[in-house]
Design brief:
Elongation Factor Tu (Ef-tu), domain 3, Rossmann fold, mainly beta, 6-stranded antiparallel β-barrel, 3 domains, 6-stranded antiparallel beta barrel, 318 residues
């Protein structure tokens, strides 16, 4: 679930998949609908799949269950009966994606900002040192434009503690290549997934080490915070039943962009809270973040928060 929530940081729209041969909602379906609310989406397309496994009456009954289920949230959308095996109504899904879900407006004049969801070392074992490629960062631009040759910064970078204070050392490098799948690009724009080649030491990017960080042109990224002041809202109903209030000192899990971090609640009212993060995050005011708490030994999504302020970590370029 944490992996799925990290992915929502770069999503513009959503399709909610429901199996026609199961009662609706299933626990994971409920949690995914919560995630759609965190994304602040108003429109989704519901795919009622596997209708070839049920009768017409069963499909219509579940259709009513799905519509009632959607009424418990802030989102709505058409329910399309589909058989993936028989490729039934695939054209209807495509039609709704094009005509019902409108792509967001892109502002190319905003500062470039990319959410990092992958990072890799593309060098094969035993490669000669003179033939090594720099680390590759994968993700999606949420604003602005990247061009080959741009000097970029990755925050928070290397994190350490000095005298009980967080010190972040952002990575500074250049863009050496841009790719979308196998297509070589000169410039990268918002939307879609891109791979950014850099001059970073490949060991820094190995095995997704940069996941959760934010990348942008040098000197243009948001601040790094280790304590956040937020306004929050819990969902009306959770997987454990009726919603339960958060508790002071309670450990919770936050999804900030593509970062997953634990935190402790330092201060709390019915609508506001102060979160002390286990690791600093690069984020900005008015950004939405997901709140999960431990229910029966599993982290479950229970609400969302909007960042209103915070305390910055120390940044060093030494």
């Amino acid at each position: 679930m944490a992996t799925m929530l990290n992915g929502t940081a770069i999503m513009d729209a959503a399709l909610l998949l429901v199996a026609a041969n199961e009662p609706c909602p299933q626990p994971q379906t409920t949690e995914h609908l919560f995630a759609v609310e965190v994304m602040n989406l108003k429109k989704i397309v519901v795919i009622q799949n596997k209708i070839d496994l049920v009768t017409k009456e069963q499909a219509l009954e579940q259709h009513d269950q799905i519509k009632e289920f959607l009424k418990t949230s802030q989102v709505d959308g058409p329910v399309i009966p589909v058989s993936g095996q028989l490729r039934m109504n695939i054209d209807a899904i495509l039609d709704f994606i094009v005509n019902y879900i409108q792509p967001p407006k892109r502002d190319m004049n905003k500062k470039a900002k990319m959410i990092v969801i992958r990072s890799f070392d593309v060098n094969k074992p035993g490669t000669n040192v003179l033939d090594l490629f720099g680390g590759v960062v994968g993700g999606s631009l949420v604003s602005g434009v990247f061009t080959i040759g741009d000097e970029i910064e990755i925050r928070p970078g290397q994190i350490s503690k000095e005298n009980d204070l967080f010190v972040c050392r952002p990575y500074i490098t250049d863009i050496t290549s841009l790719k979308a799948e196998k297509t070589v690009l000169e410039k990268a724009y918002q939307g879609g997934l891109i791979g950014v080649g850099t001059n970073l030491d490949p060991s820094l990017c190995k095995s997704d080490k940069l996941v959760g960080m934010t990348m942008g042109l040098k000197g243009t990224l948001p601040n790094i915070y280790y304590r956040l002041n937020v306004s929050y809202e819990l969902f009306q109903k959770t997987l454990s039943g009726s919603k339960e209030a958060l508790k002071k000192e309670e450990p919770i899990l936050l999804n900030i962009g593509s970062t997953t971090t634990g935190c402790k609640i330092l201060d709390l009212t019915a609508t506001t809270a102060t979160f002390d993060l286990l690791k600093p995050c690069c984020c900005e005011f008015n950004e939405r973040i997901a709140i999960s708490r431990k229910i029966r030994n599993n982290w479950r999504l229970v609400g969302y928060a909007i960042i209103e302020g915070g305390i910055e970590a120390k940044i060093s370029f030494e």
